[in-house]
């Protein structure tokens, strides 16, 4: 009876025991490779583990990759190990149960895969990580697939799509599955369908996949090949130089290599006998021609290989043809990839133009904000205010100070905008009352005075805030960008500045067109004497106008500080562009300032696109363009009307 119970108990435990031994048995079959593997030899072991379908495989691969696997020297069995001082605790690789504790480390061999093996293990883990409950691991698996695509990844990736719960990861899995199908699909029809779907994909990864499908190799042949997927025949003089063509024949057709001057010299040195070589005394070999004759004599005797003559090269080039052959053998697939690549290239170019346009609009809105205050003061008062950039800097620092007291960035921004206007408005009024009012109609003195104030304000900012850049943090809802597609995107901060520029455009137009202050400003702008005779106080209007322009510069400083560094010199980066914007647009005209900002922003972005590695060139070309523009239209895009236009 006892024997019967023991037999039944053994039969019940047998499946579990067999299951527990499966992965161990598999590893024993590849014991030598597991214990000492390389990137070239580990592949069959990984394939066998993945193909086994055992649930313990993923855990084993992770421990193997982390160097936590040990082999017992006595019997070669593998265990997971955990160090406890100088001894180890061993765990079964099937169920991770404790096998032994306080095991002498000398009785075990730690399996230490090198970097290449760990990378291959990581690729094998991808199949398991694609359905891992941890979203971070699933993301890592997709990153691994993106970095190194191969045909074995397609099946597990397709299997994991339906069960994916995260919408973003699901879309990414579908996109990667389409890439893998395009490259490694089972049938040409499946590959062509995947390639056709990629015509709507503007991503760099998608374009890279098309390029990989269209990858070619160079082949040479005496007749035009008909059994390969031919891309095109290369033409001498157009695609290959004479020298490149013969070098290719040497490499691919085993034609004799060209003998260089150094080869001739070494050959002669190695064959000197009794002070002579090639039938000539060594003393007579001072010239290249003499050495060549001696070398040819050696070649005629069979001592050295003969030189390749120009006639030999011409004959070889006339005999052999040069062809680019697609590595992918299916002509239908490469034809579909060519069409898709052409379509994608056209769409990318259109979207790049749209993206460039958005960048130009964004830059123009920044220039407009920076220059519109200067347009008002310069247009009404004729004052060349070189300290206008420092009012921008003051506004940015005002925003920074507000954020030191109000940690809520949205609320701090709401407070900083009007406060920056108030601070710079007051500073502008103070500057106008104390300095500018005494220098009207004296442009040179005004320029020098405001330049001195500019330097003084910069030094004051350094004394207060230091020379280190200060952060002006944008609210969280301004983080990131509006991504239209993989080519066109614009940051939310730039959008906010564009909206702010539109708001100020509307506000200024309302003030200038619908309020008494605006009426008086326009009157003083067009004819100060006539305005004074009508009861308007030009001094008061000039003071208010200067304060208004300075206040707008302060608000521009807050906006600019959200994406640029806040330093004492930040105003210097915008003063030149502000003056150019005002002059090009038309002095004293809001619409002209808008037009000038649009023209300068578009031109600068265009030059940067043509020469992206040199922003200084963009600035230089922009200045030259403006100089030429002023020669043909000195009063700007939109000139003043009235008597002031002739002053």
Mean pLDDT level:
83
Given as residue ranges, the uncertain stretches (5+ residues, pLDDT < 50) are 1-21, 643-647
CATH architectural label of the largest domain = Orthogonal Bundle
Q: What is the count of structural domains?
A: 4
DSSP strand count? 12
Q: How much of the sequence is in beta strands?
A: 5-15%
Task: Report the sheet with the most strands, covering strand number, pairing sense and barrel closure.
Answer: 5 strands, antiparallel
Which bin fits the share of residues in helices? Answer: 55-70%
How far the N terminus sits from the C terminus, by CA atoms, comes to 124 Å
Describe this structure in words.
With 647 residues, the chain is α+β, with helices and mostly antiparallel strands. The protein folds into four domains: 2-118, no CATH class; 130-215, no CATH class; 217-326, no CATH class; 348-646, ABC transporter involved in vitamin B12 uptake, BtuC (Orthogonal Bundle), CATH 1.10.3470. Helices cover 63% and strands 8% of the residues. It has 25 helices and twelve strands. The protein has helices at residues 2-29, 31-35, 43-52, 57-65, 115-129, 135-147, 154-161, 167-184, 188-197, 204-213, 242-252, 261-270, 288-300, 310-319, 331-381, 388-405, 409-434, 443-465, 492-514, 516-526, 528-533, 538-561, 572-585, 590-610, 615-632, and strands at residues 69-72, 78-84, 87-91, 98-104, 108-110, 216-221, 230-233, 276-277, 280-281, 321-326, 481-483, 489-491. A five-stranded antiparallel β-sheet has the order 4-3-2-1-5. Strands 6-10-7 form a three-stranded antiparallel β-sheet. Strand 2 and strand 3 form a beta hairpin. The longest helix is centred in the middle third of the chain and has 51 residues, at 331-381. The radius of gyration is 39 Å and the shape is extended. The termini are far apart.
